[in-house]
């Protein structure tokens, strides 16, 4: 596992240079932040980045200390080298002198860094020069895992929870509150999180998860108009995090309620087939709350996010840690439903009751759709295959009705379900091999008796 940390800045730098290095001046949302809060957030940023870098070094087996070969040795490099020698002399530390594109000049550029007490290795991230030797050094510094075979046997499936939403709704605060420490930088300046950050987490009941904190997702037109390549890459990484997750926590801000962008994100979650829970963060900002406030708020969510009407809703205040444990409880329940499999007998009983309550409509030609049997083909998400006489005889309205009946009778809260409709082959249609579900005595297709006459 490779961890890329933020650039460690010296505290002696002015606030303007810090903002320039962090590209905060181009971050959307600065205009809406008061000047005092903005200056305070910028002043705290270097120490927060340093704390994150220190946490990464603490947990690592190998440290790659990167310096600029073209800029040469600077005071900040000496400070970091002294800090590494003083605190982490027991770790494998590799000094990589970057931007050494020329092999001949690279050795001369790297020689300047011998004074720091490490063996400098000239590399070029652009051309790839020296990266093979760097990889060999990294691998030589990694410790071997004893009893690897038994380790892999005990390895279990660990579901991933992606925390997504618009900028500045409290995604990083939720992750920090769940983990119990500041794993990600939290700032009133939106856009602080620019990459999808994975964190291992063990719940109170011992269940393990992989939490993925993502960058805030704004509308595509707004991202394009801002001209920020960094933000465009961050949004793409957030969507990739949704794709590789199992459960998605869609975070919305209580006072902002549901926006068009929230609906766009919800569409992506449903399209990817991921489990989902809706987290209403900053619930403490709602004034004059009473027992009915949550009920009215959920009704508004169900109305505006109809595509996620199956997702549970959780209310939390991440900054104070209030009710954040409910997020893990809901995610655990969603993952369990997403991995559940129904037996074919129970599934066909549910389908038969749905058919008895409401038969498929007739076509203009007088034909009516018939369901022969149904089976569950997959999990994550649950996928059901309906074997019918003609899939064209089942309109979208009836397919939605069947999905609703499946949810009502069989559950699957918090996960999308997929219904596949398979038409009977022409040969089967002519021979009449399959009977409709209501007249079928068993789940095995009935075949006509055939006599062989010489």
Strand and helix layout:
Blueprint: H1 15-22, H2 35-59, E1 62-68, H3 75-87, E2 92-98, H4 103-111, E3 120-122, H5 131-141, H6 148-154, E4 160-165, H7 171-179, E5 197-202, E6 208-213, H8 220-226, H9 229-243, E7 247-253, H10 260-272, E8 275-281, H11 293-304, E9 313-315, H12 325-338, H13 344-357, E10 371-378, E11 383-388, H14 396-410, E12 418-423, H15 426-431
Parallel strand pairs: 1-2, 2-3, 4-6, 4-7, 7-8, 8-9, 11-12
Antiparallel strand pairs: 5-6, 10-11
Helix pairs in contact: 13-14
Walkthrough of the structure:
The protein has three domains: 45-141, 3-Layer(aba) Sandwich (Rossmann fold); 160-339, P-loop containing nucleotide triphosphate hydrolases (Rossmann fold); 344-423, GMP Synthetase, Chain A, domain 3 (2-Layer Sandwich), CATH 3.30.300. The protein has helices spanning 15-22, 35-59, 75-87, 103-111, 131-141, 148-154, 171-179, 220-226, 229-243, 260-272, 293-304, 325-338, 344-357, 396-410, 426-431, and strands at residues 62-68, 92-98, 120-122, 160-165, 197-202, 208-213, 247-253, 275-281, 313-315, 371-378, 383-388, 418-423. α13 (344-357) crosses α14 (396-410). With 454 residues, it is α/β, with parallel strands linked by helices. Helix content is 39%, strand content 16%. It has 15 helices and twelve strands. It is elongated. The strands form three sheets. A six-stranded mixed beta sheet has the order 5-6-4-7-8-9, with helices on both faces. It has a three-stranded parallel beta sheet with strand order 1-2-3, with helices on both faces. The protein has a three-stranded mixed beta sheet with strand order 10-11-12, with helices on one face.
């Amino acid at each position: 596992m490779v961890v890329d940390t933020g650039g460690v800045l010296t505290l002696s730098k002015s606030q303007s240079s810090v903002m320039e290095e962090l590209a905060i001046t181009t971050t959307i949302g600065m205009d809406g932040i008061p000047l005092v809060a903005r200056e305070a957030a910028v002043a705290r940023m270097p120490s927060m980045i340093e704390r994150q870098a220190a946490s990464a070094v603490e947990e690592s087996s190998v440290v790659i200390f990167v310096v600029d070969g073209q800029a040469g040795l600077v005071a900040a490099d000496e400070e970091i080298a002294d800090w590494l020698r003083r605190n982490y002399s027991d770790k494998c530390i590799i000094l990589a002198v970057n931007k050494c594109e020329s092999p001949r000049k690279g050795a001369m550029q790297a020689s300047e860094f011998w004074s720091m007490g490490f063996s400098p290795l000239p590399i070029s991230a652009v051309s790839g020069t020296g990266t093979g030797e760097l990889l060999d050094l990294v691998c030589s510094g990694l410790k071997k895992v004893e009893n690897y075979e038994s380790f892999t046997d005990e390895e279990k499936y660990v579901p991933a929870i992606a925390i997504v939403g618009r900028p500045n709704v409290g995604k990083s605060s939720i992750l920090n509150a769940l983990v119990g420490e500041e794993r990600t930088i939290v700032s009133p300046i939106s856009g602080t999180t620019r990459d999808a950050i994975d964190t291992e987490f063990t719940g109170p009941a011992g269940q393990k998860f992989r939490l993925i904190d993502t960058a805030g997702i704004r509308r595509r037109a707004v991202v394009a108009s801002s001209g920020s390549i960094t933000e465009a890459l961050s949004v793409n990484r957030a969507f990739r995090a949704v794709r590789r997750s199992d459960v998605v926590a869609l975070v919305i801000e209580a006072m902002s309620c549901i926006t068009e962008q929230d609906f766009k994100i919800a569409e992506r979650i449903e399209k990817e087939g991921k489990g989902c829970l809706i987290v209403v963060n900053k619930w403490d900002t709602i004034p004059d709350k009473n027992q009915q406030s949550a009920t009215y708020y959920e009704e508004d969510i169900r109305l505006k996010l109809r595509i996620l009407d199956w997702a549970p809703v959780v209310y939390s205040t991440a900054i104070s840690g209030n009710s954040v444990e409910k997020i893990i409880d809901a995610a655990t329940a969603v993952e369990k439903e997403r991995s559940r499999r129904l037996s074919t007998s129970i599934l066909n009983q549910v389908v038969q009751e749905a058919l008895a309550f409401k038969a498929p409509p007739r076509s203009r030609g007088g034909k009516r759709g018939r369901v022969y049997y149904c089976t569950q083909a997959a999990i994550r998400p649950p996928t059901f295959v309906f074997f019918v006489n003609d899939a064209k005889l089942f309109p979208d309205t009836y397919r939605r009705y069947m999905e609703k009946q499946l949810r009502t009778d069989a559950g699957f809260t918090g996960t999308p379900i997929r219904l596949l409709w398979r038409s009977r082959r022409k040969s089967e249609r002519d021979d009449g091999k399959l009977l409709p579900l209501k007249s079928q005595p068993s789940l095995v297709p009935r075949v006509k008796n055939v006599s062989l006459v010489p």
